[in-house]
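quick one
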Amino acid sequence: MALPRVVAVTPGSPADRAGVLPGDEIVALDGQLPRDIIEYQLWADQESLGLEVNRAGLELSLQVDREGGEPLGLEVDAALFDQVRTCDNHCEFCFIHQLPKGLRKTLYVRDDDYRLSFLYGNFTTLTRFTEADLERVVTEGLSPLFVSVHATDPDVRARMLRNRRGATSLRWLRALLDAGIEVHGQVVVCPGLNDGEVLEGTLAGVLEEYAELASLACVPLGVSRYNKEGHMRPHAPGEATAVVDLVEEWQGIYLSCLGRRLAYASDEYYLLARRPFPALEDYGAVAQHDNGVGMARAFEAAFAGRDLGEEQGERGPSGFFRSLEAAPAIGYRAPRAPATVTLVPRKRAGTTVLTGEYGARVLSPLITPLPADIDVVAVRNEFFGGNIAVAGLLTGGDLSRVLADLPSGRRYLVPDSCLSGGRFLDGMSLADLPRAVEVVPADGASLRRALAPAAEPALAR
Ligand code: SF4
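structure w/ iron/sulfur cluster:
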């Protein structure tokens, strides 16, 4: 068990007043070392607690006193203090198996840990879930969770996960739903494997067995040029259309049986099928934006200046855990990079928004009509190749290739979703790019704000 190390102390916080310093290793809270940030948060939620730390080999006992529920004021270097639970599946469609060699180590971690599902919205197959885990989830109210369904047919699911426990592990999904835990599901649809009749069976199986699921996202298989599984291939446009048709047909059935749509095809499917996205209202508060469900419509609405507020669901912890004072996501899920390189927007400078090929198809209709020198450049993902076209997987190398051919003297904007801790997936940093860029949060409101100086009065509030 690695001791959590303090990486930041908020000035004036209870931890600061108690004398905790960055670099201290937390040995115990009231005599015990929590297993993870969830336990830490629960245990630290008391007015007075004893904190034992290791400072350069010296064990110190500190007394922390909080007033009126103020946060402890510590940030530690990991969310899990024991080991991350890795998956025991060997899915043919696993994207981690399709990564090139030489990327940072954490990208190769195949986690299947319900705690990361709760903390960061990572999907778990539940093949390593246990009775003790269920008890903890229920006792500590770890909701919502995110579960990979893929297929409700036990044989198909076991085949897809290449794990015989895949045939039975959805019993935990049933148990979680019985216990009132909010669960969102996903189906990674692989052409020829779990589309067509199998997908129809899954949508029917969800209605029969797991109707309390909060949502079910159907997302297309991503295939990089490093894929070694011969029969894993991208969808043909007709196959994508068939998935959209099937999901929409089942939305009608769910609506009449359950009063809600429940299942959604991701935005990528609508782009592949060249069909308009459903109305924003059709998505409700589905917490599957990271799966690209309803993201385009939410982006459009926010770009148009609509305050989405509570309309759109968020993935990740809720309630007491919504604000985790000590849970950096590095290694588990990419945190959004701070906008470390920010140019002062010049009112009349031309602006170019660089994004992935899918993102460009969403942005172009919003930006092209603006009465200003603003354009959108689609950056082809040559690093991953295949059908990888989402902005979040853009690399520094691909951006450099495109930026090098673009003129100097313009503003260049890139989405923060392709950066983690200030680095692109290929390890490059913003400083390595041939042009200075501004990093903009990948949401419509932020892009609107970033473009407003150039596009007044069309975008200025
Ligand atoms: S469960 Fe996830 S991480 Fe594990 S092999 Fe399958 S796709 Fe990869």
